[in-house]
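Notebook, bench 3.
Goal today: get a predicted structure for Phage tail protein from Gimesia benthica so we can plan the truncation constructs. The sequence was checked against the plasmid map this morning, with no discrepancies at the termini. Length recorded as 209 residues. Pasting the sequence as submitted so the record is complete.
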Amino acid sequence: MSLPLDLWLIHPEAEMCDAFRDRFQELPHVSVMECRFEDLPPHDCFVTAANSFGIMNAGIDAAVVNFHGYDLMKRIQHRILDLYLGEQPLGTSFIEPTGNPDYPYVAHSPTMRVPGSISGTDKVYAATWASLLAVYQHNISQEDEATKIKTVAFPAMGAGFGCVPYREVARQMAVAYQHYLDPPHRMDWQAVIRRQQAIAYDEGQQVVR
């Protein structure tokens, strides 16, 4: 069973925030914030829409490094070198402490190997799902409630360099959160088909390849 989270969805543009509100309106514990990363109040974990190599010098990754310091990027890169032999696969995420008690963790979650379009793929879903799993695994490993992640802030995954349309970003992220909230109780092909259709189709129309 998944553990409860407060999910924050942030973006500085009203159009993206409207797409978030539309897709997440039926899902619990979700707040949409029309703001930049730098304006966020204290929270437990921020998810970086990253690349596979931990090079965090552009987009929202750069804002995260400017806020927490260059050493955060170096630690993330060392973990990628140690854990993944220098290239973190898409569909994975790991939690890295920041050293800042008001913003204690980031989740490094690649949406792409290198900057470029991921439109027409399910990589937004994969990165969001991986992030939620990383938070879940972190929380079940912690005995002290004070070190668990309770608030998770997400940017619009894949909306920048990834060129994914805002409504599709919101759709895939909402599907990942719905799957987090309602995991299957057994593994069979019917469950797999339902999940795949939720990821790949919107009202009968195929939206990812």
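Strands lie at 6-11, 30-34, 45-51, 94-97, 105-112, 151-154, 201-202, 205-206. The first strand starts at residue 6 and ends at 11.
Flagging this for group meeting.
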